Amino acid sequence: MAKRVLIMGPPGSGKGTQAAKICAQRGLDHVATGDILREAMRTGSEMGRKVKAVVDSGNLVGDGLMYELVKVRLREESAQGGFMLDGFPRTVPQAEALLELLGKDGIEAVVLLRVPEEAIVERLLLRGRTDDTEETIRHRLEVYEKETEPVLRYLESQGVKIVVVDGMGSVDLIAKRIEGVLDAIN
Length: 186
Ligand code: B4P
Known about the structure:
It is built from 8 helices and 5 strands. By secondary structure, the chain is α/β, with parallel strands linked by helices. Strands 2-3-1-4-5 form a 5-stranded parallel beta sheet, sandwiched between helices. It is globular. About 30% of the residues are buried.
């Protein structure tokens, strides 16, 4: 079973939902950059205040800061037995830095969740986080297309295997599809 895994997909594709479920079932560490940022925002630190303005606008936080946060997090003891990285990399420079950190063989699988745009907008409006207004959601989807889709092409060009998983259906059904993918990789 693959133990060093990335989960990717547009905002609202269910990355966080699936990563939490699969990690709990398989004893992997759930490393979610959105959660790391929300924790920083919650504490009200200077960094958290700066980050909040960026996240609420639907833009991406700077690559340098994101990379530092992920590097420190992946060095924690809890990540040594395997992890599912959720929300990183979102740009090509982040992907380059990650491959340098882990090595090309350091990523065993990339699961890409595919969900149609209208379903995404519907899900996120229901979720109702402060960054889930319709205008911000549409902007985040544009940012995804411009900044994150090229990451998939970059990873493929580096020989990293990407497996597309249908992200529509019940949470349990999607989790089973992902587990099937992870089980098939050794
Ligand atoms: P994230 O926290 O990663 O948020 P997301 O991409 O919007 O959500 P996700 O895809 O995890 O969806 P979820 O499971 O919640 O990022 C937030 C922000 O942080 C970014 O916009 C950016 O500003 C910043 N950021 C994060 N990482 C960064 C990076 N690397 N670089 C720069 N900036 C970064 O699911 C969504 C909703 O759908 C939920 O309400 C859920 O209940 C529902 N749902 C899930 N599965 C469903 C299903 N099967 N059917 C119906 N509904 C479902």
